[in-house]
Each structure stands twice: as C-alpha cells, then as structure tokens.
Write a structure and sequence with these properties.
Structural class: alpha+beta
Largest sheet: 10 strands, antiparallel
Number of helices: 6
Strand content: 25-35%
Distance between the termini: 79 Å
Number of strands: 25
Helix content: 10-25%
Length: about 375
C-alpha cells in the first residue's frame, strides 16, 4: 500500500484539486487544496491562500470542501473569527535533510543546511507540494514537501507564513476518494437551504421547489458517473450533488444511541417500525437539543404513533407523520406493537390519537375548573 494512501479506497488529504473550479481572486485554475465557496454570492470560490488572506467580503459565510466529493462544512463569517500565525517551512526558513531524503550529497553532506527560496508544485497535479532550497555549497534544487506524503527536508529555523483561521481548517483524516451511494439506499438531504442551493449548480441545478426536500429522507435511484445522485423523495425524483447527502443507517438503534428506544424495542428500532412520541412537550424540547431541534409544528405529533423511515448515523430516529418528516432523539420515542401499532400509525390513526388526547385534556380541564 502506498504510504500516502489508506485502505478502503481512502486517501490522506495531503493535496487535492477541484477540476473546473477557479479562484475568483487569484484565478488559479483548478483550485488546489481546500475549496472555499461563498454562500452569499453565486459561483464565487476562493483558494486557501485567498480565503485566509481575507479576500472577498469578510461578512459572508463560506462552505469548505476538502475534496470535490467530501461533505460540505458550513463556516461562520470570518469577521467574527480570530486568526493565528503560521510557523513552518516558508520562504526564508533554514532546513536540513528530512526522513525521505534520497538526493545523495546535493546538500553538501549530512547535517548541512540550506535556505528555502520559495514554495512550488512538485508537478502539475500537486500545488505547493515542494520547496526550492539553496544550500551552503551554493547548490540549488527542488525537494518534496508533502507530495505523496514525502518530506525531503525538515525545518531547523521556521519562518512565518502569514495568518490563518485555525478553527476553519479540517481535522486531518482519511477521506473517501468519492462518496458512493447504492441503488435503494436511504439518504438524508442536508437541511441547510444556503448549503444545498450553493452546491447544486452543475449538479442538477437549483429550483425553489427543491426546498421541499431539505432535511428529508429519500431512496437512491442511481448514482451517475459524474458522482451526482438521483434520489426519490415522496414519489418525485431529484438529481443532487452527493456532498449534500448523508447515508442513513440500515441497522437498528443501539443502547448507546438511545436507552429508551432500545429497551422498548427489545433489540432496537428500525425502518418500518411504529413508535409513539412522548406526550410531554417540555421533555421533548429538552431531548431535541442536539437532535434536530424543536419547533411548534412538532406539537402535532405529541403522543402520536408514527412510522420510522430511517435511523441516521448519529442514531437519531426519522419518522413520518402525514406528509411531514421529523428527526427525533431516540429517547423521545418508544416502539409499539400489535393493534396499537396498526391502529395508531398513519394519518387516520394520528388524527384519532390527537382527538383522544384533546378530549382527555378537555375533561381534565373541566374537572379542575369544577
């Protein structure tokens, strides 16, 4: 296995290109490394140097994509964020041989030092992956610094490389070369309007009626060679950029993902199950923190039996109520069986359940008033 390549079709994020995407400020084409896409402006992207160099409106929020197929990360406007100074191998830094040195005595011998002249690409595909060094013996050459994970030189005396937004950078990890989705797989569309609208150009495009699919679960029809995914949501097909989709877990919830769901189901809640939502609005509001949130429209499902349509990777339970879908904390539902499930699920069952709860509430109020 290559030292810069992981298993399972993954590659270490030591360099990537975004074909067909040009930096709107410096015009580098394609953008190397991370791509920074403005949410407020149509078709406006920056490279990392320009983004951290405070180009474009600092009050605009941006999306970050580490690779062309990686998940989108939405970032806050830079005007509200602090920067830190970069220190390392930049022009002027003093260097010596590194762990991957294979250039004989070009440097004048082991332990000799040289000064970095500039940062440059090792080849046309990997920008800023090498350095030009002038050694004490006056010899000058280009050496790898990140290309395929190789490091020909190490810093003896680091220099400043400007400032950057520390908390806007990704955590270095293994990243799939392409996000793949299989036919009939259940996926959830990103719920953020600005993110989906910004990522749809050249990927099926954006239409206002697509607001309907935000945050909803659909079934994959097919994935095209371009990577775009055709998804069926409530009987209608949509072509979507894969970066706005998340796979739904095909398995049941686990005890770690929700003790209440696990205990009530005797093995976990899965797609197709009928579950009852807790009837205490205050408790539901508390449980929903960090699990999709709460809004007043969710009051209509209090105490109702609803149908599970998927479990996401965080263990949250996605349910269908009439023509609406909700993301719920697994501790906010309990599995129901038998006649209670068949009689309570669906729109008619939900309506009957609501009527029973309203009647009980009215009787209780009358009793208290009396």
């Amino acid at each position: 296995m290559d030292p810069w390549r992981g298993g399972d079709g993954c590659v270490l994020l030591v360099g990537s290109l975004h074909p067909g995407v040009k930096c709107a400020n410096c015009h580098v084409d394609p953008i190397p490394g991370a791509r920074w896409k403005c949410v407020a402006c149509d078709d406006y992207d920056l490279c990392s140097l320009c983004y951290h160099g405070d180009k474009h409106n600092l009050g605009h929020a941006f999306l970050r994509l580490e690779t062309p197929s990686s998940k989108v990360t939405k970032l806050p406007p830079r005007k509200d964020c602090s920067k830190v100074q970069a220190q390392g191998i930049f022009p002027g830094a003093v260097v010596t041989r590194g762990r991957d040195w294979k250039h004989g005595d070009q440097d004048g011998g082991d332990g000799k030092r040289g000064k970095v002249v500039d940062i440059r690409p090792w080849n046309d595909e990997f920008a800023r992956s090498a350095v030009r060094v002038r050694w004490e013996n006056k010899h000058e050459n280009t050496y790898r610094l990140g290309f395929q994970g190789k490091t020909d030189v190490l810093a003896v005396t680091a220099t400043s490389g400007g400032h950057y937004y520390k908390y806007h950078l990704p955590i270095i990890a293994l990243e799939p070369l392409q996000r793949s989705f299989g036919a009939d797989e259940y996926v959830r569309v990103d719920s953020d309007l600005e993110t989906v609208r910004a990522m749809q150009p050249n990927h099926g495009e954006w239409m206002d009626k697509m607001r309907y699919v935000l945050g909803r679960i659909g079934k994959v029809v097919r994935q095209f060679d371009t990577g775009d995914v055709k998804v069926l949501v409530d009987g209608e097909e949509w072509t979507l950029n894969p970066v706005v989709l998340d796979s739904m877990m095909p398995t049941t919830t686990t005890s770690r993902q929700g003790a209440r769901a696990e205990a009530s189901s005797g093995g976990g809640i899965k797609s197709g199950d009928s579950v009852r939502v807790i009837g205490d609005v205050s408790k539901l509001k508390e449980l929903q923190k960090g699990h999709g949130g709460f809004n007043d429209n969710m009051r209509k499902v209090l105490g109702c039996v609803v149908t599970v349509i998927g479990i996401d990777k965080d263990g949250d339970v996605h349910v269908k109520h009439g023509d609406q879908q909700w993301c719920l904390n697994p501790q906010a539902v309990e599995k129901v069986e038998g006649s209670e499930a068949s009689g309570g699920a669906g729109e008619d069952g939900d309506g009957a359940e609501m009527l029973r709860r309203l009647l009980a509430s009215a009787l209780l109020k009358a009793f208290v008033d009396k």
